[in-house]
Amino acid sequence: MDSWPCIRIMTLVEILDKIEILGAIVGLTYLWLEYKANIWLWAAGVVMPLFYIYIFFAGKFYANACINVYYLFASIYGWFQWRKGATGESAEMRITSLPQQRRLPLAGIFAVLFALIVWILHSFTDSPVPLGDAFTTALSIIAMYLLAHKHLEQWLLWIVVNAVSAVLYFRQGLYPTCVLYAIYAAVSVAGFFKWQGMMKNYRESP
Question: What pTM was computed for the model?
Answer without folding.
Answer: 0.78
